[in-house]
Amino acid sequence: MTREDIENGSEDMVIDEGKPEGGERMQGNAVPEGFNANYLKVYYGKLFPHADMFKWMSYGNDGKHPACDQSYFGRREFSFTLDNDIYLRFQSFNSASELENSIKEKCPFKIDIGPVYSVDPAKRHAYAQSGDNVFAPVERELVFDIDITDYDDVRYCCSGADVCLDCWPLMTVAIKVIDASLRDDFGFNHILWVYSGRRGVHCWVCDGKARRLTNEQRASIAEYFRVYKGNENSHKKVSLTVPLHPFLGRSYTEVLKDFFESKLLLSQKLFSTEERYEKILEMIPDESITSELRGKWQDNKRSSMSKEDTNVVRWEQLKHILQSGKQKAQALQRCVKEIVFSFTYPRLDMEVSKHMNHLLKAPFCVHPKTGRVCVPIDPNCCEEFDPTSVPTLSKLLEEINMGSLRADIDNEWDRTSLGKSIRFFRSSFLQPLLKVCKEEIENSYNAKLQHSKNSLNW
Ligand SMILES: [Zn+2]
């Protein structure tokens, strides 16, 4: 596609050239920042991985194998949020091309993915709601939603929907802790982490046994991850047991402690003002200790002479007092960990995980406010993920323009910065997932054959 194509092109594309700051006319392939239906049309037309989404959501049921459930994909709910906030729920599609055509035609500002229902959700009214025909969700990925706005009391750099490289690592820590537990404690293997496009991350656990969990089982898993049990009468947000649950113990020694001490303490300057350190002192249930520390910190002169960072010095003093031999009470020793947990432990949106019919934004959507694509995050190197450098819609269109002379690449996305995200999605997530799905389909088929053979012999 050339620039002329975009301006005069077959898809009624007009991209306003606009004027950048400074008033200079844009040169070459520059595409003004923004999010609009025209940009989105090009994105869905040339970049969005429709076929991959279909393959994923089919879980191997799109093949010719006699054991494939041909109705499976068609029972999945998609919902589209259109321009002007028109909201279309219970969309369903019977093939890859139906899905692709509908997305291209409706050009949704947001695509959400719901559960697989007992019957085609678009035809739910046609079925008698009785007997075996009750319209109900039967499968759904186990999902997690973690949002940086839930961390506003532990970050001082930003608030609300804003996020910067000082607070984003809280998300990185959440990925590490939850991902390790999903794999090690629950034995899940097919886990997709996705940047939500603005201020958080989503997790899709796609193993068959995860998709078939009941709401009660989902609630138990969500509960397993919960450590925030404080109430309004308590300043402690976190209440840890003795001994610490092995999962929390591992999270503490392998991730949280080091992150708190070597990153968060400094990036958020947690002890730099009275207001900030008072918040931490409130978590210590011993008046004599808090007043001793307060006494040291209110007289700021000595520490200003020290070359060491105030936050580090104060944290060390706090730890020293709480962990010194004098403090026999376990509650006080535990306090150090509780402080670290309350600042760093993942804060999940529980309701999203508990219910099968909760909708979650599809990967590779574009966030309307930021123009950023919801790209997968590799949990094995999530500390390298930088939300501020995620490709935006306008950047991708620019790259399409620049790559228009290259005819040697089949996929348009391959010549854009979205390429590495789609390649990662395929190689690390989709291919291993589909391999297992096909094995499971084959195995269940063979078991059925064996079973009917046995009954014939009988
Ligand atoms: Zn920030």
From TrEMBL:
Q: What is this protein called?
A: DNA primase
Q: Which family does it belong to?
A: Belongs to the eukaryotic-type primase small subunit family.
Species name: Juglans regia
Q: Could you give a single Gene Ontology term from the biological process aspect?
A: DNA replication, synthesis of primer
Report the Gene3D superfamilies cross-referenced here: DNA primase, PRIM domain
Molecular function GO terms recorded = DNA-directed RNA polymerase activity; metal ion binding
Report the Pfam families cross-referenced here.
DNA_primase_S
**Where would one find coiled-coil regions in this protein?**
none
Q: Keywords of this protein's UniProt record, alphabetized? A: DNA replication, DNA-directed RNA polymerase, Metal-binding, Nucleotidyltransferase, Primosome, Transcription, Transferase, Zinc
